[in-house]
Amino acid sequence: MTRVRQSARARADLVRIWRWIAQRDEERASAIIRRIEARAAILARHPEAGRLRPDIAPDARSLSVERWLIFYRIDRNGAEVVRVVDASRDLTKMEWPRTTIHSRAGSPHSSIRTPVLRTSANHRRTSAA
Fold first, then answer.
1. CA distance 90 to 64
2. Which CATH class is domain 4-127?
3. DSSP per residue over 65-114, as a string?
4. Residues 13-47: tens digit of each pLDDT
5. Separation between Cα atoms, residue 52 and residue 84, nearest integer Å
6. What is the DSSP letter of 4?
7. Which of the 8 DSSP states describes residue 118?
8. Which residue ranges make up each domain of the chain?
9. Exposure string for 90-102, b = 16+ CB within 10 A, e = fewer
10. How far apart, in whole angstroms, are the C-alpha atoms of residue 73 and residue 97?
11. Of the candidates 82, 84, 44, which has an alpha carbon nearest to the alpha carbon of residue 64?
C-alpha cells in the first residue's frame, strides 16, 4: 500500500474551497471536502489511477471530483497531493512545485516553485474545459 501525503499548498487549497462553499452552506462544504479526501485516498491502493498531465508537468497526474481537480505526483515515498483546484480555472497559470531535493541527512535542501509553461495547445485545452 502506498502512502498518500498532502502538500501544504494542497491543504491550503482545501481550506480555501471549504470557506468558499461554506459562505452558502457549511454542511455542503464539509461533504465536498470529504469526497475530495476520499477520492485522494484511493491513491494508497492505486497510485496510477489518475491520468497523466504532461500539460502541467512531466510528473503530474490528476483525479476529478465534481468540479475539482486533485493534482498529484508519484514519488519513491508514495503519492503526494500537490494541488486541489477548480477545473474551470486557467491551469496554465497554476504553479507546480519541483520535487524537494534532500540533503544527505534527509532534511529538505530546497523546494523551488516553477510556473507551468504556457503554450497555445495548453491554452486551447484548458479554455474548452
1. 16
2. alpha beta
3. ETTEEEEEEEETTEEEEEEEEETTS-GGG-EEEPPPEE-TTSSEEE--EE
4. 999 999 999 999 999 999 999 999 999 999 999 99
5. 16
6. E
7. P
8. 4-127
9. ebbebebbeeeee
10. 10
11. 84
What would the grid cell of residue 12 be? 491550503
Burial of 108 (0-12, 13-18, 19+ CB in 10 A): exposed
**Residue 99: band (very low, low, confident or very high) from pLDDT cuts 50, 70, 90:** low
Q: What is the pLDDT of residue 69?
A: 96
Contacts of 94 (CB under 8 A, 6+ apart): 56, 71, 83, 85, 116
pTM confidence score: 0.74
Fill in the amino acid letter for 117: L
Burial of residue 81, with CB atoms counted within 10 A of its CB: 0-12 exposed, 13-18 middle, 19 or more buried: buried
Overall residue count recorded for the chain in this entry: 129
